[in-house]
Amino acid sequence: MPYMSVAAIDAAVDHVLATYPAIAKPVSLPETSVEGRTIKALKIADGTGSNRTGVIFLGGTHARELINPETVISIALRLCDAYVNQTGLAFGPKTYDPSSVQMIVKSLDLILVPMVNPDGRNFCLAAGGDAMWRKNRANHPGNPCRGVDLNRNCDFLWSSGIGTSSDSCSDIYKGPSAFSEPESRNVRWLIDYFTNAACLVDIHSYSELVLFPWGDDENQSTDPNQNFRNPAFDGQRGIVGSGYKEYIATSDLQTHQTMGQRIRAGIAAVRGRVYTVEQGISLYPTSATNHDYAYARNFIDTGRRRILGFTVETARAFQPNDAEKNNVITEVSAGLIECLLETLCPAEVVQALIKALFPLEHMRTFRDRGMLASAAGRRYEQLFRKHAAEAIRLVSKDKTALKAGGTLMKVAGGLVADDGQGVKRKISAADLADAASALKAFQQIGSKALQADIKATLGDMKGLEDRTLKEAFEQLSAKTPAIRRGTVRKRRR
Q1: Residue 197 to residue 192: CA distance in whole angstroms
Q2: Kind and range of the H or E element at 279?
Q3: Judging by beta carbons within 10 Å of its beta carbon (0-12, 13-18, 19+), is residue 50 exposed, middle or buried?
């Protein structure tokens, strides 16, 4: 089949909305394209509330990468169909059971923009157009050439010139100003509006890559002063070997790598294609991209929820032939489902299943600003991620596990409910007893790895009575042997 026209993609979005109105809702983006086209977006979710987590998938930012809008439409249609009919999903040999589908739709807000750049796609497909057109179709006064690269138009080091051009005839023309284009302003609006967004994936082609921040320079996790907001390093960024490296917290680096590896694993499970997970600059230096902008926002406003940022470069060509197109859509869809499952938080799943309200925002605040400030806290955060998928399976299928999960949430929430700092209320004997009982319930039905880590945790809990949560992690950090601190190691890529 030929690639879908702009009208066909719009019709496909309308079909999803009309067929699954209970879970698929239109998202009205504030601006039309340069040529006046409505840019369609939708949200897939069963449930509402401020404690839900959002994930944003973007397709078609670059016009010639024709396969990706169809990938986003495909996953929307298949996910809705599987949820409503209470079936699983199959992407070749890679399958997901119905409970996984149910948890995704019940616990997450999935925001999809299949075609960020409809004008560019129309020009690629039109008679007399340019099949390799990349940019939008802007015609700024005084410019000799049309179009702005929408993935070089964001307000992240926009003026730096790193991987961008001021020449309107260049494929990487950054535009006359940051967010000069209505299409890129729509992406910014999405991130502003969906304040619960925790992950953004911008789907591009080609190269079979999963890229994460930063794109402007190599990463480092030791000197926070070396960061994109510090003008003292202007002129050094983007030059490998200059002495400058972009700061990223160790925990954020590990979290991006873990998510990237999970996306890669989902893709590889379909037909063996192994994408490379790497930092953005490993491909080439860039600035003002969607995924760096999304992640950078938390650095500017620390009160915002951190957004993991990714660019997935699908396929081995901009426009694969029919057979290969179908293969790529299938394998990338599995990778995106893995992204959603990795984003799922056991705490949010427990809350959704027992229909209770816990202070999740304060719990996240303590995780980001309290736990991750200590060695023991970082170790426990990694253990939490290590066992998250198993915990979700257990609480979704076992009533005892669900009750135990609710108990743990109640204890943890009570210790941070004041302001997310974990410094006001002290851990009581009853807190420790309730937490120990809940952990033992998981221990009885969990895997050997989970059992071993729970056993160690129960040992750590001794002597924590009358400590605040912050003091507890400080105490555990002081007595944690160096060899144990190294048990959760940074994954290598």
Answers
A1: 9
A2: strand 276-279
A3: exposed
Domains of the chain: 6-344 (3.40.630.10), 348-485 (no CATH)
Cα dihedral value 158, 159, 160, 166, nearest 10: 100
Q: How far apart are CA 453 and CA 459, in angstroms?
A: 10
Side chain identity, residue 46: D
Q: Quick check: helix, strand or coil at residue 212?
A: strand
Query: Which of 58, 63, 76, 62 is closest to 20 using CA atoms?
Result: 76
- What are the angstrom distances between the C-alpha of 159 and each of 178, 199, 278, 489? 8, 25, 25, 37
Length of the chain measured in residues: 493
DSSP state for residue 245 in the 8-state scheme: -
Query: Which residues contact residue 370 at a Cβ distance below 8 angstroms, ignoring those fewer than 6 apart?
Result: 377, 416, 420, 421, 422, 469, 470, 473
Q: What is the value of pTM for the model shown? A: 0.87
Distances in whole angstroms, Cα of residue 330 to Cα of each of 91, 113, 115, 422:
6, 19, 18, 45
The whole-number pLDDT of residue 351 equals 82
Q: Kindly indicate the confidence band of residue 480, based on its pLDDT and cuts at 50, 70 and 90.
A: low
Mean pLDDT of 66-90: 98
pLDDT at residue 485 is higher than 80: no
Looking at residue 251, what is its pLDDT?
85
How confident is the prediction for the chain on average, in pLDDT?
Answer: 92
- Beta strands 40-44; 89-91: pairing state: unpaired
Rounded to 10 deg, the angle between the 375-397 and 469-479 helix axes is: 110
Please state at what angle helix 322-343 crosses helix 67-84, rounded to 10 degrees.
Answer: 60
135's tokens? 């940019």
Overall average pLDDT of the 184-202 stretch: 97
- Rounded to 5 degrees, φ, ψ at 480 are -80, 120
| Whole-number Å distance between alpha carbons of 245 and 156 | 16
- Summarize the confidence of residues 382-408 as an average pLDDT: 89
